[in-house]
Amino acid sequence: MIVNPKKDCPHVENSTLIDIEKFKKIPFGDLKCQKCEEINELWICLICGEVYCSRYIKGHFLEHNKGNPEHCLCLGTIDLSIWCFECINDKQNDSNTEKQPKEKGSYIESKKTNDYIKIISDFNIARCEKKKEISREEMEIEKKKKKVKKQMKKKIKF
Fold first, then answer.
1. Total structural domains within the chain
2. Residue 135, in any domain of the structure
3. Residue 63: CATH number of its domain
4. Interval 52-61: pLDDT, tens
5. Which of 16, 35, 36, 72 has the maximum number of C-beta atoms within 10 A of its C-beta?
6. Close Cβ partners of 73 (under 8 Å, ≥ 6 residues apart)
7. Given pLDDT bands bounded at 50, 70 and 90, which one contains residue 36?
8. ∠ at Cα 9 (34, 12), nearest 5°?
């Protein structure tokens, strides 16, 4: 399935997105759906900053959008994609150019949303680097433990 990005979404251009400083305070390392506490496949509302599960889980973001139609823009936390649920998509089938049935939900490309994507991307990179550091530290600890065990065995032999 190919999803062609929409580059002229009026909702991105005409909406007041969440303040970038408020967005930075979202606890990205501890995200979960505000309705069901799901931790996979989450979408962050770019209008208010609330976090909900996607339409592929329990659809709580779509419920949020239905109750607040102006809250139609979200950022997917898995692939860092921006979606508008007021625009109609333009999906195509990979195997041929036949159009798929239209449905609400368009993948968006816009310079106005790049800062939000960069913030989460930077957070994810930092988290990965921290995990690598922890892994290196754990490896060093294990090496030291083995070294101490070897020394203990040598002392026992004498």
1. 1
2. no
3. 3.30.40.10
4. 999 889 999 9
5. 72
6. 11, 12, 15, 17, 45, 46, 47, 82, 83, 84, 85, 108, 113
7. very high
8. 50
Residue 119 contacts residue 29 (beta carbons within 8 Å): no
- The answer for residues whose C-beta is within 8 angstroms of residue 17's C-beta and 6 or more apart is 46, 47, 73, 112, 113, 116
23, part of any domain: yes
Residue 43 β-bridge partners: 52, 76
Distance CA 139, CA 133 (A): 10
**CA 74 from centroid of its chain's CA atoms:** 10
CA-CA distance, 17 to 42, in Å (whole number)? 18
In a domain, 42, yes or no: yes
Instruction: Quote the percentage of the chain above a pLDDT of 90.
Output: 23
CA distance 3 to 25: 31
Cβ proximity of 74 and 82 under 8 Å: yes
For 101-136, b where at least 16 C-beta lie within 10 A, e where not — what string? eeeebbbbebeebeebeebbeeeeeeeeeeeeeeee
56 within some domain: yes
